[in-house]
Known about the structure:
mainly beta; Jelly Rolls; nine-stranded antiparallel β-sheet; six-stranded antiparallel β-sheet; 15 strands; carbohydrate binding; ConA-like_dom_sf; Legume lectin domain-containing protein; Leguminous_Lectin; Legume_lectin_dom
Amino acid sequence: MKNSVLFFSVLLVLPFATSLHFNISRFTPGDPNIAYQGDATPNGAIELNNAGYTCRVGWATYAKKVAIWDPETGRPTDFTTSFTFKIDTRNSTEFGHGFAFFLAPQGILISPNSAGGFLGLFNETNGYSSRFPLVHIEFDTFFNDEWDPLDINQDTCHAQITYDSASKNLSISWSYEETSNPSSLFYIIDLAKVLPAEVTIGFSGSTGANTESHSVGDGLHPSTTPIE
């Protein structure tokens, strides 16, 4: 699998407040903008999981709360996030499980017993459900026949997630370094009816009995976190 230039960028256009924009291209210890839980650590990139251990979970989230709809009017915001990541399976012939980009209430912690196919967000105790309001997009490398679709691609991926508040369209587009044709999916959802007005955003990754590494971010460029 090729190495890739990795980054994390978010733009939120808030009709009821000042717009928020940040672009982080290098993740370093002590940066107050990113909070880490579980296995997740910064080393230029975010390493969500240590592939040397089984059944582990790591979270990396933006440390500040993010407003996604106005509690007075119910009016939601548009947002776009772009990131490039690497899932490295070279050290194992059997690998898993994957990671997810998610939006959830502020102050939440990693769910117990949520390693493996639960991706650090769900667990069997709650009937395969999250313990908190949650919207997430999975990048899954292991087929769990209880819930996963077939035809999972493991190539290095460049992704963009966009929410159009007028049409309530949550969409993702992605392209692979070794696959020529870009792809996309969308889902119609009113985030104001699913999530609280202020959320945390970030990434959650997990391993099970099979392992792999999940990296987001890279140290090739100076770190910038502009807030407009």
